[in-house]
Amino acid sequence: MAPSASAGGKKQKKKWSKGKVKDKAVHAVVLDKTTSEKLYKDVQSYRLITVATLVDRLKINGSLARKALADLEEKGQIKKVVGHSKMNIYSMSTLLPDLQHA
């Protein structure tokens, strides 16, 4: 080898970043009184209601959100727009007649 090639020094090994670490979400598993009141008062005014919207806005567990949606639909406060095995989409019950006439 030529002495000029070794004089440049060695390249350092690439250090990989650990990536972005997302904080663990701490969502409620049981409905407490304040969350329950917010659920029955506010959710029926949402235009689009899914499990993900309830989890995001109310900070509740996904399985709890599914049960809450089924309960709200049974009481007639919301109506199912799309029913699929993977995802159900609901809307406020007063909005649906307007959509059918449009």
Descriptive account of the structure:
With 102 residues, the chain is α+β, with helices and mostly antiparallel strands. The chain has a single domain, classed as Arc Repressor Mutant, subunit A, CATH 1.10.10.10. Helices cover 41% and strands 11% of the residues. The protein contains five helices and two strands. The chain has a two-stranded antiparallel ribbon. A hairpin with a 4-residue loop joins strand 1 and strand 2. The chain is elongated and about 75 Å long. The termini are far apart. The model has no long low-confidence stretch (mean pLDDT 85). This is 40S ribosomal protein S25. Belongs to the eukaryotic ribosomal protein eS25 family.
Per-chain topology:
Layout: H1 3-6, H2 33-42, H3 51-58, H4 62-75, E1 78-83, E2 88-92, H5 96-101
Antiparallel strand pairs: 1-2
